[in-house]
Amino acid sequence: MLLLTVSGVLASQNDTMIVEVDILSSTSVDAVSIEVPDHVFLGNVTKGKKTDEFQVYVNNTGTVNITVTPTLASNDDIFSNLYFWYRQTSDWPKQKIGDFSFNIQKPTSSGVRKDHFSMWLDLTNYTGDINGNLIGDEKEITFVALPRA
Amino acid sequence: MKIGILLLIVILSVSLVSALQISVSPSHININKLNSKICKEVTVSSDRNIDVYLEDRWSNAGKGFNDYNLSSKDFDVEINYPKTVYVNDEETVDVCITANKKGTYNGTLLFKSENVGVGILLKVNTGENLVNVKSLENNSDNLSYTKITSNNVDKKSNSQFMLIILAINSLLLLSLLILLISLAKV
Predict the structure, then answer these.
(1) What kind of fold does domain A30-147 have according to CATH?
(2) pTM of the predicted model, to two decimals?
(3) What's the burial of A15, exposed, middle or buried (CB within 10 Å: 0-12/13-18/19+)?
């Protein structure tokens, strides 16, 4: 006890102290990574109608929080009527492609964080012409993941 | 029955395979020096052997991907990278950036293949002068810093501190003496 009190006095008499800190490089080694399905088949639709809603799962397989934005690879009159609904909850609005994006937090220990939204093609207000059946009409949608700033 | 289970496994396996994964690291490149060429290695990997197409987009605000609708020329940024990379498991890409315009603006370098695009952020902050730095210091959310804490004893309060230590020591010695005396009596 005496030794402890003496050492306490010695420490308090010393006006300098050694401070140690690990200074890490400012360059981040985080990774941005997502996994999305290759192909989604929305079924049949005619002008004035809409397809069923299909759930699409996106995995955040990186180490940072990300924002995922679906974009059309090229302009298209029909596929610009794609709608999205995050998690199908009333907290989120149904949004058209171009307006819709959602966040996925970084995964915890498992290495993957899964999230989902639903998508459908809504031609109820489509005014363009559809000449004949467009069987297997495909458009490329790119799901872009950016790290959240 | 067994055939049915096997078919189910095959179907499930097929659905798992039909997803594309692309990873890019690092997630950010910071450019803080004006007119200085900064080169970084970016690692891109995928679960398939694919062609990956690179493109850069720029923005003043840079919140969502749709905000990145300007080109590097709009910000007088010189940026060099290969336009296409064939990724066989993992590849490294050299990216060189020179920011020739003062200010704070963001870019993204997008790695696209099929229906997946993964971007890294290119953060340019070649602030005008110290005024900008001070305004940043006032906003603690924008700062990442190392905080060092210690029990600091300055010279003015040193004598006061010494008195407290001496008083505590005296009390401890007194209690020790009382304890020894009571033990000796027993």
Answers:
(1) Immunoglobulin-like (2.60.40)
(2) 0.67
(3) exposed
